[in-house]
Structures are given as C-alpha cells and as structure tokens.
C-alpha cells in the first residue's frame, strides 16, 4: 500500500520561503514521475509542479520562477522549494503521481498546510 507523508508547511510572511518534503513508501519510487499539488480553500486541487523519473521538471504558469521541484531517489523523497510566497499560495500541499493528469496512486496523504500572511 502506498503511503505519502508530506511535511514542511507552516505560517510564513509575504515574500518568505519554505521547503516541503514528501516521503513515499510502498512503491519503487525511482520509476515514477512525481508531482506536487495544492488545494486552496474552496477551490479544486491543482497540480503545481512535476518531475519525471529522469528529472525533467514542469511547472504551472502561476508558480514558474518561484517553485522548484526535486527528488532524491535514495530517500524516496520529493521536495518543493517555494520562494517569494504570496497569499495566493495559501493552500494544503500534497504530493502524488506525476505523468498523465488525473492519475494518482489510489490514495493521498494528509498534505502539509502553507499559510502566507500579507
């Protein structure tokens, strides 16, 4: 069974930075494309960044230049570095399968909350 554990969120000021982590167990991590998603209050979950199993990255237009996704296959962990945070980044952040949109591992973690104060 896949388990995803996100961490690193918190309350930060406008313009601040955070690094989120997501450790995954129950899969052969290195063969999967991975992605970070977020869900803001009252909105649908959206994909913000993805990384293929070979390290190619892609970002939503709203976060390009501010978010950086990376992975450590030895640690079964995917990271999201977030810079220049704005209140619009306030959301719960999740990791899950990347690749074709709409696919996931069949379960989701609890996510990690990011709140940006103005």
Helix-strand pattern: EEEEEEEEEE
Radius of gyration, taken over Cα atoms and rounded to an integer in Å = 13 Å
Instruction: Profile the largest sheet.
Output: 6 strands, mixed
pLDDT < 50 stretches: none
Mean pLDDT: 96
Q: Tally the helices: what do you get?
A: 0
DSSP strand tally: 10
Structure description:
The model has no long low-confidence stretch (mean pLDDT 96). By secondary structure, the chain is mainly β. A hairpin with a 4-residue loop joins strand 7 and strand 8 (77-82). It has strands at residues 3-7, 10-13, 18-25, 34-39, 46-51, 57-59, 67-72, 77-82, 91-97, 112-117. The strands form 2 sheets. A 6-stranded mixed β-sheet has the order 2-10-9-4-5-6, with no helix packed on it. A 4-stranded antiparallel β-sheet has the order 1-3-8-7, with no helix packed on it. The chain is 0% helix and 48% strand. It has no helices and 10 strands.
């Amino acid at each position: 069974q896949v388990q995803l554990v996100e961490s690193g969120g918190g309350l930060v000021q406008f313009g601040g930075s955070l690094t989120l982590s997501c450790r995954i167990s129950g899969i052969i991590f290195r063969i999967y494309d991975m992605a970070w998603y977020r869900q803001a209050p009252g909105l649908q979950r959206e994909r913000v960044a993805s990384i293929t199993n070979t390290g190619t990255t892609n970002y939503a237009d709203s976060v390009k230049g501010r978010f950086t996704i990376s992975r450590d296959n030895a640690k079964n962990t995917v990271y999201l570095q977030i810079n220049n945070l704005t209140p619009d980044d306030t959301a719960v952040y999740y990791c899950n399968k990347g690749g074709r949109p709409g696919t996931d591992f069949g379960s989701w973690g609890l996510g990690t909350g990011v709140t940006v104060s103005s």
